[in-house]
Amino acid sequence: MARKSLIQREKKKQRLERKYTLLRQSLKKEMSEVSSLDEKLEIYRKLQSSPRNSAPTRLRRRCSTTGRPRANYRDFELSGYIIREMAHACLLAGVTKSSW
């Protein structure tokens, strides 16, 4: 189980990212339409003035049950060993553990 503070920090980053998504998209679109370098730099400064944690690249996928930051499957939003345990218990529809 991940520390609760790390999970809360990640949720805070997600909220910030959702809040600033439209602003970031509009500034990037505006930057692509402008041709002069001075205007592009001014728009870039506006983009930089938004909080660091509002950037989508700073988000990290975590397991929805344990908060584990590594070995996550996007389809299930679960870490590998949780998927393995759930597959053994037949809790995931259509997933079977191979054996030979």
Automatic annotation (TrEMBL):
**Which keywords label this protein?**
Chloroplast, Plastid, Ribonucleoprotein, Ribosomal protein, RNA-binding, rRNA-binding
Q: Which InterPro entries match?
A: Ribosomal_uS14, Ribosomal_uS14_bac/plastid, Ribosomal_uS14_CS
Q: Which PROSITE patterns match?
A: RIBOSOMAL_S14 (PS00527)
Q: Which GO terms describe its molecular function?
A: rRNA binding; structural constituent of ribosome
Kindly indicate whether the keyword Secreted belongs to this entry: no
What's one GO-annotated cellular component? chloroplast
Q: Mention one GO biological process in which this protein takes part, according to its record.
A: translation
The compartments listed are:
Plastid, Chloroplast
Please state the span of the N-terminal signal peptide per the UniProt entry.
none
Assembly information from the UniProt record: Part of the 30S ribosomal subunit.
What functional role does this protein have? Binds 16S rRNA, required for the assembly of 30S particles.
Q: Which family does it belong to?
A: Belongs to the universal ribosomal protein uS14 family.
What is this protein's name? Small ribosomal subunit protein uS14c
Source organism per entry reads: Torreya fargesii
